[in-house]
Design goal:
The protein is mainly β. The chain contains 5 helices and 48 strands.
């Protein structure tokens, strides 16, 4: 297990022995009455079967519905703040998201890239990051499985899985309605659900969420004379005075049919619509090295803009003259629109000693946007794009429950996707006579693929307290892509350097993989588990889908290789003190091969995707929850993560990097990042919090919640530019809730990120700036303070 894992394993065994001895010598309730309150058992599906969190031999963190409510977690980015060693952020374009677990992630900048962290929504796995735009509402539980998860969750999960499970219909009629207002972004939201039986065998639940906000970033752009075309005035502030402004509308219908005791069918349909005043509306440019005035093209000052990370920017719209006859240009006004539907149909048939399960999934999302990418009132660099993604999945599996020592789970999984993508950029307003507008080109691509896999696991109880589980997933992945530029701009040097108009670049990727997994678990008591596991992970390679396809692109050099992981982890879980304390500890060490990395060059305004040679992550992670009194619950977690490139000699240099052969210098356009920490991989993370429910008033319930979390510094720029350094920060959430004991209504005041930490998870060079000291950060949401009221029936 290596230098780190061995001592941790020894310490875990010692801890196991000490706590076992405590359980044998201390009477139940020694730290409180045995008749008092206890921690509720948490059920998870980390191995696609319902098991206790403390018995499943998997590193999994659970965010409950109550925690989501108490922390204003209405999107995946906020959920990332509640789970240890996890971070999430919208990316605006490309895959649409940055999702990181234990320092392993995928960039958002290339539309052909899948995520290293799979998102599963009601048993439908999704590898595309655009799903992060979905609202989180009426959710029963969120499970975050950390480390490779190749065996149970479809595909593409070498870093982990985030699994969301919405609330199912209830046996009796009930419902709720929550209305609230967030003061910082002027956000108004309404959420609710109604649930109950329709017949003796059919139950239904209808839930919804609607919100509208003005945004937390102030935009000071004003109309300005274009410096490239003095006769044209850019409209400036038509992008809006605040951002990201827009609305979210979501609804979910759930039907549960149980005609017999041994059969059930569940159907879920979720629909979501989101608008923003630009896909990059949550971004902000900034400067380093003492620069105080940002410029464009190296010399042109930007009126109203500053160099600070202060939620103030001068981000303009496009003049109507430049947007005329431009596909998806919206008259020059930036925008972002996302619409998707997600359906899941699950059948469960219980036979004598086995359960048959079939899950059919359908996911359809269309994202259309226009973004100004020079982050200036001149809007001299901008692009309009449209992407549609349609996914069909099918999984069948069987799980046995024999009385004997051997049981098994096995099945097959299939998915098919189609993804047409269109992108039309404008670089510096050069008229294109071939298109009759200012486009550089009209790039169209059509990508499609199929994935087949078969998986199985055998569980052998060697003795009643010792289980050996071994399994593997065989996978075959195929992807095909056709990319073509139309009407390249002959008046632009960049346009002339693109893949010639009308020439179709066709590429095909195909690969096979076998990912095995072995776990040994020892459970001397029902509430204690010690396990050791060998795991592997796999994310398919693919075909790059860049915004600009140059003439040197070939069917081979646009492909990238699969990303693979293998390693070990050892963990210990226990519930003690008469079920008033539970905790877990895990040590891990994984080697990653051919990490898929995307780099951005702000000078050429192009992205490059490739495979980093290798990386290793090793660390220790733990969490605990203690019911200190019947009214007070304390919880916390910590993580130490050493995630480094073992070998990465061919990384892209950043703009302005010193040249030479010394460490940290650029040699022939490449730098050596061997030994550097992975992106978004803080060395230390930890949090602690409490829920306090005192009886302050007769017949009234009061709840006070607080959680503080800390992240050490990390690098957020793929090319490791100085502007990508994110310093350490704290997040503080707190809230108070009051309502009658009957529980039919309550009011709450909730604060999230009260420290107002303005942190970024992705950083790129400032396009068109011509200055190596200027960058753009993708920032997560700062402070929120919301007042909300809920009624229940």
């Amino acid at each position: 297990m290596g230098r780190l894992a061995v001592p941790v394993l020894c310490g875990t065994v010692s801890l196991f022995a000490v706590t076992s001895a405590m359980a044998q010598t201390d009477p139940a309730g020694a730290s409180g009455s045995g008749d008092g309150a206890q921690l509720e058992e948490i059920i998870v599906t980390a191995r696609k079967r319902e098991e206790s969190l403390q018995r499943v031999p998997v590193a999994v963190s659970v965010v409950s519905a109550e925690q989501l409510k108490n922390n204003l977690a209405s999107d995946l980015a906020k959920i990332g703040e509640l789970a240890p060693q996890v971070s999430m952020s919208q990316g605006g374009s490309g895959t649409g998201a940055i999702i990181t677990v234990r320092g392993v992630s995928s960039a958002s900048n290339d539309a052909g890239l899948d995520q290293s962290v799979a998102i599963e929504v009601d048993d439908v796995p999704i590898s595309r990051g655009q799903v992060i735009s979905a609202a989180i509402f009426d959710v029963q539980q969120v499970q975050v499985l950390q480390g490779p998860q190749a065996l149970f969750f479809g595909k593409n999960s070498p870093a982990g899985v985030v699994s969301l499970r919405s609330v199912d219909p209830t046996d009796r009629y009930e419902g709720y309605l929550t209305a609230g207002y967030e003061f910082r972004a002027d956000q108004r939201f309404l959420e609710g659900a109604v649930s109950g039986p329709l017949t003796d065998t059919l139950k239904a639940r209808l839930a919804f969420r609607a919100s509208k906000q003005d945004g937390w970033i102030r935009n000071v752009a004003q109309p300005i004379q274009d410096f490239l075309n003095p006769a044209v005035t850019d409209p400036g502030a038509t992008m809006g005075e605040r951002g990201p402004a827009g609305h979210d509308y979501s609804g979910r219908l759930t039907l549960l049919w149980t005609p017999t005791a041994d059969f059930d069918a569940k159907f879920k349909l979720m629909m979501n619509s989101q608008t923003r005043n630009a896909g990059n509306a949550m971004t902000e440019p900034f400067c380093i090295n003492g620069q105080t005035q940002p410029v464009l093209a190296g010399v042109v000052p930007l009126p109203g803009a500053d160099c600070k990370k202060d939620m103030v920017k001068s981000h303009g719209a496009v003049a109507p003259e430049f947007a005329a006859n431009f596909p998806y240009a919206n008259g020059g006004e930036p925008y972002f629109r996302s619409k998707f539907s997600l359906a899941a149909l699950t059948f469960n048939k219980k036979l004598d000693r086995l359960t048959l399960t079939s899950t059919t999934g359908y996911y359809n999302q269309t994202v259309q946007q226009m973004n100004v990418s020079d982050w200036s009132p001149y809007a001299s660099i901008w692009a309009a794009s449209k992407e549609s993604y349609r996914l069909v999945t099918q999984e069948v599996r069987v799980d046995t429950d024999f009385d004997g020592p051997v049981n098994f789970m096995g099945g097959a999984y299939y998915e098919h996707f189609v993804r047409p993508f269109f992108n039309a950029p404008d670089l510096f307003h050069v008229f294109n006579p071939a298109a009759g507008n200012y486009t550089l080109t009209n790039m169209s691509s059509n990508s499609r693929g199929e994935y087949y896999s078969a998986f199985g696991q055998v569980r052998w109880n060697i003795v009643p307290t010792l289980e050996l589980a071994a399994g593997a997933r065989w996978a075959h992945d195929e992807k095909r892509s056709a990319i073509v530029n139309a009407a390249n701009n002959p008046n632009s040097a960049t346009g002339r350097a693109l893949l010639p108009s009308g020439q179709v670049l066709r590429s095909k990727f195909s690969d096979n993989d076998i990912s095995p997994e072995v776990t040994l678990s020892w459970r001397p008591e029902a509430n204690r588990t010690l396990y050791a596991a060998y795991k592997t992970g796999y994310k398919a390679g693919g075909i790059s889908n860049q915004y600009l396809v140059f003439a040197n692109a070939t069917p081979d050099n646009v492909k990238f290789k699969p990303e693979k992981a293998r390693g070990f982890e050892v963990g210990y879980k226990a519930t003690t003190l008469d079920r008033r304390l539970r905790y877990d500890l895990v040590a891990y060490r994984y080697n990653y091969k051919d990490l898929q990395v995307v780099s951005y060059n702000a000078e050429t305004i192009s992205f490059t995707i490739g495979n980093a040679a290798s990386a290793r992550i090793e660390g220790v992670q733990g969490s605990g929850e203690w019911l200190a009194t019947d009214d007070l619950t304390l919880r916390g977690n910590f993580g130490y993560n050493r995630a480094r490139y073992r070998s990465y000699p061919g990384a892209q240099c950043y703009v302005g990097q010193p040249t030479g052969t010394a460490p940290g210098q650029c040699n022939g356009g490449r730098q050596d990042l061997t030994g550097k920490y992975l992106l978004r991989a803080p060395k230390f993370t930890y949090s602690f919090g409490a829920d306090y429910k005192p009886q302050l008033l007769a017949d009234w319930d009061t709840t006070f919640t607080a959680q503080a979390s800390h992240s050490s510094s990390y690098q957020a720029a793929t090319d490791y530019a100085p502007g990508g350094h994110q310093k350490a920060y704290w997040l503080l959430n707190a809230g108070a809730r009051l309502g009658p004991q009957e529980g039919n209504w309550d009011v709450a005041l909730i604060g999230r990120n009260l420290t107002n930490s303005y942190y970024m998870l992705n950083t790129i060079g400032w396009s068109g700036s011509g200055n190596p000291n200027q960058y753009v950060g993708f920032f997560n949401r700062p402070r929120e303070v919301a007042l909300q009221a809920t009624v229940r029936w």
